[in-house]
Amino acid sequence: MESMMRPGAMTGKVVVVTGGGTGLGRSMTEMLLGLGAKVCVTSRKLDVLERTAKELESATGGEVLPVACDVRNYEEVERMAAAAKERFGSVDCLINNAAGNFISPTERLSSNAFRTIIDIVLMGSVNCTLAFGKEWIANGERDKAILNVVTTYAWTGSGYVVPSACAKAGVLALTRSLAAEWGRHGIRSNAVAPGPFPTKGAWSRLVPGEMMEKFDMTKRVPLGRMGEHRELADLVAYLISPFSGYVNGEVVTIDGGEWLKGGGQFNMLEMVEPGMWDAIEQMVRGTKGS
Ligand code: HXC
Ligand code: NAP
To answer: Is there a catalytic annotation at residue 153?
Structure first.
């Protein structure tokens, strides 16, 4: 996977990627390995992690440690952090990428369904952040980076994915709060907010079956396309690298302009046929003095 950074730019760095066995986490892992980092990938399914580790090690020549861990469970997170430390000596960067999500009218959700998403997305990010942050601060380790994966509805909100929107908003607040609080400990805290990037995990739960044809997601994006995994992976690699050493508390949107298009009241005017604009202009100019 080609990167904007030079080969070896992340040599000596150890990164933990939650949800690193699939989708965007896997792509981030591949990019980081190519740049020389060592990576611990963690999620619930050990078989998936082990397969990813094997494939990426042979593709990049890098070193991957697969560790099973449900980020909802703090004891499991502590064990995962200890395993990464034992193997690599120390951890430099944490990428909170693991998530759970599905579309549903909110009134159909049980309390447990809502809590399940909050627990994975918000509490999972909190648990990992606490486990690594406590250790770094207690040991006086500096030059650390936390990168949280949110999405643009963390600040706009969105119907039909309300638990996820609430959880991602919390993760964004966590990002900004700790940037202020933990900066003095040499821990940077940033986030990325991706728009649509095709992955099996997201697409099967957010645009299942025929919905994909009915709701062409590219139509919502001014650039007229989905994101490419390497574009996000490159941004993530930069944000956890020393090259972004003065970036702290930032959320970088990478969505082809999608959320702004949804927000601007008159963006629907793209539906006006170009040939109609002469007549429209005349009507508007005709209001002068009226
Ligand atoms: C309503 C549902 C439901 C659905 C589950 N539940 N699916 N309710 N509609 N489609 C309810 C269950 O009935 C149960 O409530 C509760 O949610 C927990 O369900 P479990 O299946 O027991 O949970 P679990 O096994 O922990 O699985 C978690 C999961 C699953 C989130 C439901 O989909 C998962 O493992 N997802 C991980 C990967 C993922 O979601 N990736 C997509 C990320 S995409 P009751 O009351 O019955 O006990 C993303 C994109 C964001 O975040 C932005 C896009 C632009
Ligand atoms: P994905 O492949 O489904 O990734 C989610 C990962 O989280 C999986 O590897 C899953 O592995 C892991 N996970 C889920 N529950 C977990 C738990 N309790 N403990 C530990 N790991 C858990 O989907 P994706 O699209 O790559 O999503 C990655 C991130 O990007 C998420 O934060 C998502 O919100 C964000 N995002 C995606 C898009 C998009 O368009 N794809 C847009 C905006 C934001 P296991 O099942 O093995 O646990």
So the answer is: yes
Residue 6 belongs to some domain of the structure: no
List, chain by chain if needed, residues with CB within 6 Å of any ligand 2 atom.
18-19, 21-25, 43-45, 48, 70-72, 97-100, 120, 124, 149, 151, 194, 196-197, 199, 201-202
pLDDT in tens, 179-227: 999 999 999 999 999 999 999 999 999 999 988 888 899 999 999 999 9
CA 17 – CA 213 distance, rounded (Å) = 32
pTM score? 0.97
CA torsion, points 272, 273, 278, 284, in degrees to nearest 10? -10
Helices (H) and strands (E) in the chain, counts: 12, 7
User: Which ligand lies nearest to the CA atom of residue 28 in the structure?
Assistant: 2
Q: What is the CATH number of the domain that holds 121?
A: 3.40.50.720
